[in-house]
């Protein structure tokens, strides 16, 4: 521990820090599998997400969980719940949603959770019609590999493969593309089956089959799990393809003028912006002929296996220590090293076993998504995903905002103004993945995008104690409020703090049409909960002491921050209308 601490504080030891990071990202190691999101005992069950952000008896508990293996099992479960007037939520094997969308409500109550963990066997490929129909519990990696075996390709997918098909489309998961049908997976869905409540004559449950001719499909293919239990999903596929990827690390001077052209020019392109480093990384990512030589792999650094000891050290010796000491320069040293290491290793791209140079060319199923830390090896229990809550590793917020093209340019310019006042304030973001900029196309989904849009994601330190403020808290909050209030960005449904969803229904022209579809398919609100209502209806909660720290409110009084720790409610610096929790050293002194 002391040795790592010395490395972190000694610029002359850069090569040793890189060696430490290379240990942290061992490319060929597999790890202990993630824990089940469901835990049960004699008194009931609780549900948590994969990051350990929520999952206690007070906020996400229920008396019963069922594990269907067939569609008929799901029908039976819904019939039982409907007859008994139970609330129902669905969870997959993975549970990576950040909001509590899968929680049935507070207290044990009258509720049931359906897990699709074992409902994952059917993958039916129709090569003539270029379609694949799958059980909703099928994992994304299984689907991608099976489609590839048939000589076909799933064109759109999120970058992280630890999701189920049902969860992926229900929450609007996406990759990056303005081409064809776009980068959002739900926009490639052409058919879907829902299990919903039925009348007594219908046996209290029924299956509804939706296809491209049904208007309800536009509600059901991005539904947050609020319309029924998705049992089958049919997705359009294409002939097998290969991709060529090159990362171009360059100055960020013109990123606000170049992002649009980049999205138009490269089918799967994205941009990663590191504000504190004044660096933009343009991902030139395009399909190439299937005969082009290359067997590349995308093994993204952030999703590789980490030694548990190093993950703990990273959190304890680096992040927490820098936070407690208010050491901005320490975070900047790490940010500089991490960005340099990503450049050195092409952010996890491999031409075969190792990265040997650009371009990296490979088959779609090896290039489009990654998640090697998910997979277990019986002989290794000392490594895991870096955020595994069992090891007290990384713990972070994830903010994801969806902009129109004109407003995104203005947002970037405002963030640059804020950055230029003190670039070090953004090192905490750049320690993770900077601002990841992706492109998604206009969608027919009622809760999708009404025009071609730009998505930006950024992660940053989260304290283990919800009432602990964090270094540069005001900067992150000002950027967040710029996005969702000043520029009216829409939140990604599966990410974000509560503040991102305030008044969200106003941002969707088809919101009332979605609510009407929900009323038709789920007239008793079987699939709603107080938590899903919090997201869908976007109501700000009660303003209590400390509510601004976790984004449960926008502060309007000092008590909403942490005045006892020197954090007071103040206006934004660039976006003056923002209200943020700012540390005032003079008051503390």
Looking at this protein, list some descriptive labels.
globular; Uridine Diphospho-n-acetylenolpyruvylglucosamine Reductase, domain 2; disordered N terminus; 589 residues; single chain; Uridine Diphospho-n-acetylenolpyruvylglucosamine Reductase, domain 3; eight-stranded antiparallel beta sheet; alpha+beta
Give a description of the structure.
This protein is α+β, with helices and mostly antiparallel strands and 589 residues long. It has three domains: 2-30 and 241-501, 3-Layer(aba) Sandwich (Vanillyl-alcohol Oxidase, Chain A, domain 3), CATH 3.40.462.10; 38-115, 2-Layer Sandwich (Uridine Diphospho-n-acetylenolpyruvylglucosamine Reductase, domain 2); 123-240, Uridine Diphospho-n-acetylenolpyruvylglucosamine Reductase, domain 3 (2-Layer Sandwich), CATH 3.30.465. It has 16 helices and 27 strands. The chain has an eight-stranded antiparallel β-sheet. A five-stranded antiparallel β-sheet has the order 7-8-12-10-11. Strands 1-2-3 form a three-stranded antiparallel β-sheet, with no helix packed on it. The longest helix is centred in the middle third of the chain and has 18 residues, at 308-325.
Instruction: Tally the structural domains.
Output: 3
Low-confidence blocks of residues: 1-30
Mean pLDDT: 90
Structural class: alpha+beta
Span between termini:
31 Å
Look at the structure and give the CATH class of the largest domain.
Alpha Beta
- The fold-level CATH name of the largest domain is Vanillyl-alcohol Oxidase, Chain A, domain 3
Proportion of residues in extended strands: 15-25%
